[in-house]
Amino acid sequence: MVGTSRYGAGAVVVALYLFLLAPIAIVLPLSFSGDSYLSFPPASWSLRWYVALLSHDGLTGAFKVSVALASVVTALALLCGTTAAYALARGTFRGRDALLALFTAPLLLPSVILGLALLLTFSSWGLLGTYPGVVLAHLVLCTPYVVRIMTTALATLPPGVEDAAATLGAAPGVVFRRVTLPLLLPAVTASAVLSFLISFDEVVVSLFVTGPRLVTLPVEIFNYVDTRTDPLIAAVSVVLVAGTLAGVVLIERAVGLRRAVGG
Amino acid sequence: MVGTSRYGAGAVVVALYLFLLAPIAIVLPLSFSGDSYLSFPPASWSLRWYVALLSHDGLTGAFKVSVALASVVTALALLCGTTAAYALARGTFRGRDALLALFTAPLLLPSVILGLALLLTFSSWGLLGTYPGVVLAHLVLCTPYVVRIMTTALATLPPGVEDAAATLGAAPGVVFRRVTLPLLLPAVTASAVLSFLISFDEVVVSLFVTGPRLVTLPVEIFNYVDTRTDPLIAAVSVVLVAGTLAGVVLIERAVGLRRAVGG
Amino acid sequence: MTRSAALTLRGVTKHFGAAVAVDGVSLDVAPGSMLGLLGPSGCGKTTVLRAIAGLVPVTAGTITVDGEDITARPPHGRDIGLVFQQYALFPHLSVAANVGFGLEMRGVAAAERRTRVAEALAMVQLSGLDGRRPRELSGGQQQRVALARALVIRPRILLLDEPLSNLDARLRDELRVEIRRIQQRLRITTVFVTHDQAEALAMCDVVGVMSQGRVAQIGPPAEIYERPVSRMVAEFVGRLNTWPCEVVAPGRIRLDGREMPAATDGVANGAALATIRPHRLLLGGAAPAGALNHVTGQVTHVAYVGDLVQYHVAAGALQLRVEAHAARHAETHRVGDVVECRWWPDDLRVFGA
Amino acid sequence: MTRSAALTLRGVTKHFGAAVAVDGVSLDVAPGSMLGLLGPSGCGKTTVLRAIAGLVPVTAGTITVDGEDITARPPHGRDIGLVFQQYALFPHLSVAANVGFGLEMRGVAAAERRTRVAEALAMVQLSGLDGRRPRELSGGQQQRVALARALVIRPRILLLDEPLSNLDARLRDELRVEIRRIQQRLRITTVFVTHDQAEALAMCDVVGVMSQGRVAQIGPPAEIYERPVSRMVAEFVGRLNTWPCEVVAPGRIRLDGREMPAATDGVANGAALATIRPHRLLLGGAAPAGALNHVTGQVTHVAYVGDLVQYHVAAGALQLRVEAHAARHAETHRVGDVVECRWWPDDLRVFGA
Description:
The complex is a heterotetramer, with 2 copies of chain A and 2 copies of chain C.
Chain A: H1 3-31, H2 48-54, H3 57-90, H4 96-108, H5 111-125, H6 131-155, H7 161-167, H8 172-201, H9 204-210, H10 217-227, H11 231-255, H12 257-261
Chain C: E1 7-16, E2 19-29, E3 34-38, H1 45-53, E4 60-65, E5 68-69, E6 80-83, H2 95-105, H3 110-123, H4 139-151, E7 157-161, H5 169-186, E8 189-194, H6 197-203, E9 206-211, E10 214-219, H7 221-226, H8 231-237, E11 241-249, E12 252-255, E13 258-261, E14 270-276, E15 282-283, E16 293-304, E17 308-315, E18 318-325, E19 338-343, E20 349-352
Parallel strand pairs in C: 3-8, 3-9, 6-7, 7-8
Antiparallel strand pairs in C: 1-2, 1-4, 4-5, 9-10, 11-12, 11-14, 12-13, 14-20, 15-19, 16-17, 16-19, 17-18
Helix pairs in contact in C: 2-3, 2-4, 3-4
C-alpha cells in the first residue's frame, strides 16, 4: 500500500531473480573462454570453443537430426492443430467443450507419463524405435499448443469480419483466403515457432520411445556432458539460447509473448 | 460456413484426436493385465502388477524422494513467486515490465539450455550434485508458473475491493488478510499443485545438475524401463495419471484449467 | 442510383436447439422506406436481421425481395448490404480496399472500382482517408467506412445492426441524421435494428416493436408512441405512469376511488392498468381550461434536467411522475407545493391487468 | 442519524509523473449538501474523488473536513464512505458481512452490528437478502448493498463514483431518485462524480463542471445550464446551436448579416460565437408575440422522438437545430415547410471565438 514497502518488495524481487537467472548470465562469458577447462571468470578469452563446436561431427550431426525432426513435426502439428482449432472454433457439434478439454490435456500431463504411455502403446503397434514413432510422439506434445494458440486466435478474430465479407459477395473459400487466413497469420507463425522449439528440445519422451538410438541434439549434449565438462558446452548453450531468443522474438512480434505462453 | 462442412471438420478432429490420445487409453487395460509380459489386449486380468509395484523398493523409495523434493520446491516457489507477483502487480517502480518479461522467460527456455546453464554455474558454485542444487534448479523451473498465475490472479481481482476495504476502515495489513488473501486462495492452490507436478515430473534439469545420483521417481522409472518392459510400468503410469488428474481437478476447481495452462 | 426493392418476410421462424429466437415474424418493407426493429436485447431483432442477410438459416418461413424468394440463398448471393455494431472492417486492408472489397468480389474493373470507392467515401464525408488502416480511424469514421462499404455495391436492401450503439452521444446524434439523409437520398429499402427507442422513432418511417421473438406492434412512430397496443410497447418506447384501476364501462374507469373518462379501447370491465406519459400530465397554470381529468397532490421530488423538470407528485394513493418542459417562463414548483394536475382523458390509456 | 460535515478543498493538485491530472482544485461543499462533479472522461473528477478518500496522495493542496486537515491521513483513518462504479463488493462475503465490514473494523459489537446492518439494508430496500452472495444479486441490488455498506458506518462524507453508470436506463432513473432521497434524509455531505449531465443536474444541489484538471464552473444546476461561463460548459451540459457572429456593441451582434440583440456579457467587439439551446428556438405559432429575434427558414429534417420533435431548419447561412415539446395540440411541421423561428434575445449567449 505504501510507497516504501513497494520499493522494498521490488528490491526483494530483483535480488531473488538476479540469483535465479544468474546461471544464464554466467554462460555467455564462459563460452568465450580461452581455457581448456571450466573456470569462472575465464583466465583468457577466445572463440576456440565455437570453432571446436563447428567441427564436432557428433554435435553438428545431431543438430541436423533435430532440425529435420522438428521441421517435420512442426508441419504436421500445424496441419492437425489448425484443422482441429478451426473445427472447434466454428463448430457447434455436441461435445465441443469436452473435445477442447481433451485437446489441452496433454499440456498438463507430465512427460514421464506421456513417455510411458507411448512406450506401452507403440510396443504393441510396432512403432517403438521407429522414426514415425518419434514423429508421432512429438506430435502429441506439440499439437495441443497449436490448437490452443489457433483457438484463441480464432476466438479473438474481429467480430463480424467473416460475415461482412460474405454479405459483400465472398464465397466461403474466398472468405477464408482473403479474410480469415491473413488475420490468422501471426498465430500460425507463433504456433510454428513454438512447435519447433518444443520438438527441438524434447528429450524424455524421445528416450522412452526410441531409447538413445535416434541421436537428437539434446541426447548428444547429454552424452557429451556425461564424459567431460568443458567450455564447448557453454558455446552450445549460447548458440541454443540465441536461437531460442530469435524464436521468442518472432512469437512476440507475431502474437505477443504472454498470449502464447498463456496467462 | 455450412452445417455439413462443420460436421465434417468435427469428425476429422475426433478421429485425429482419438488417434493421438489412444496411448493413454491403452495403458489402463494393460495395467490390469494378468500376464507376465506386455501384450494387448491382455490374455488375463489381475491386480498383480499393482501389488508388485507396492513391494518394489526401488520405485517406492524413489516415489518418497520425489514427493519430498517436490514439497520443498513447492513451498519455496510459492514464497518467492507470490512475493514477486505481489511486488510486480502492486509496484510502480521502473523496469516493472522488463522484470515481468524476465520472470516468464524461463517458461520458454528449453530445459536442455536451463540444464546446461545450471550445470555450468553450479560447477563454479560447488552446488553440483548437492540437494540444495537440485532444489534451486527446480525452483528456476517452477517459480515462473507461480509468478504467472499469481500475477494474473492479482490483476483480475475485482476492481476496487481493496480500496473499498480501506475506506471502510481496514489498515493495509487487515485489507490483505481479510480481502486480498481470501480472494487469492484459489490461485495459490493452483500454483501449488502445478509447481508440485512440474517438480515431480522433472528429469532433464535434474540429470544435468546431479546426474543419476538423486534417484527421483522418473529416474527410477527410466532405469526400470531400460532393463525390461512389463505391465508393472503400466501400473505405475495409471497411478501417476490418477495423481495428476487429481491435481488437475484441483486446479480446475480453483482457477479453471484454461487460465492456469494459459490461452 | 439504387433500385428500390420491396422486402417481405412471411412466418420467419428460427429455433436454436429448443430455444425459439424468432417466432413467425411477418413484415413488409415498402420500397425505399426504412423499417426500425426495436426491442430489448434477446427479443430476436438481430436474428431477424441476420436471417435476412442469410447469415442465419431460418427454421421456417420465407424471405422475398421484389417477389423473388431468397430464403435458401447463401449470404454471398443475396446482394444485401449489412452494417455491423462493431464496424467489422477488415483490419489488414486499407480504407479504400475495405470499401472496394464488394466491388472486387463482383469483378468490377480496377478503374471503375476506384471511381466508385471515391464516390462512396465522398458520400460519407471521408474523402482523402483512402490509404488509412481502420485502426487509425475514430469509431465514427470506422462506422462511416462500414456504411460506404455496404452502400458501394448498390445493394437491394440495406441492413443496419445497432450501427450507432458503440458511439458516444454527440456522434450518435450526428450520424443518425446523416444515415437518414443518405438513406432518403438513395431511396434504399432499409432495416434498422436498435434497442434505443429514440433512435427508432426519430429515424424510421415504420417501427416494429419486438418482444420474445414476435412483432408486438408495427406502425409509424407516432402511432407506436401515442397508441401502443400493450403495456409492454408503451413502456418500451417511453416513460410511463402505471396505476391499477377498474374499468366500469367502455370509456370510463375508477381510479383511486374516483370515476373518470379514459381510453379503454375494448378492455373488458374489471381490474385493469391505467397508463399515461409523464409529459401528458399538466401541472397548475400549464394546463388549459376545459373538460380535463384532474387530481390534486403534493410535490415530493423535483429534478431539474436542463430542458425538462421532473416532478414526483403524491395524490391520494397515486404516485404521479410529471415532466414539464423547462420553458422560459414556466412556473416551477418546489417540494411540498400543493399542485393541481390535469390531463386529457384520451391520454389515459387503459390495458388489461 | 449522521452529523453533517463541511468539506473543503484548497488548491488540490495531483501529478502522475509529468501528467497533471488535477490542477489546483478548490471547492467548498456545505454541510448536508450534494455536490456533483461533472466532466468528460479524463477531466480529473475521479482523481479528485479518490484524493478526498485518501486513495490517491495529493501532490499539493489541502483537504479539510469540518476544519480538520485530513490531507495526510491514510484512507482507513478518514471516516469517508465511498461507493464505486463497479460496486466493489467483497465477493467472498455475504451481503450482511459486506455491510457489516466497516462496523467490524470499528470494533462494533456483534449484536449492535446486526441491528445496524438490518437498518441499513432496510433503508436501501433489501431486507431479507442478508445471506446472499453478491454474485447472486442484480446490478441494481449490488449497488444498493454498496450504498448500505458505505452509509452504515455513518461516515462524515459520502463519495459516489459514477454509481449508476453500470445500470440500465430504467434502473438508473429509479436509483437516482432513491439515492437523492436517502442523502436528503440523512443530511449527509456528498460528492457525486458523473459524466452524465442529466444525472448531475437532476440530483445535485451544486454542480461543478471540470475540464482538464480544473473546475471550469461551479454553481446551482440552473445557473450552470442557463448561464454557462464558456462554450465548453454550455456544450457539455446540453445540446447547443453554435454559429459564428460578430459582436458590434455590448448586447448587440451581427449574425448572418443582420444585427440583433444578444447576451454578450463582456465579450469584446469582433468575431465571436453565438449559442442557443435547441428548445429555446420557438417555431411558428409556438412563439409568443413580443420583441423577439426571428429568422425565416425552411425545414430540412424532422425527427419524432416521442415527447419531443427535432427539426433542422436552414435559414440563410444558418443551420438551426430546433426542439419542440411534442405537446398534445402542437402543430407539427414537415420537411420543406417555411417556418418562422423566434427566440428571446437573452437566450442567445455569446462567447469569445
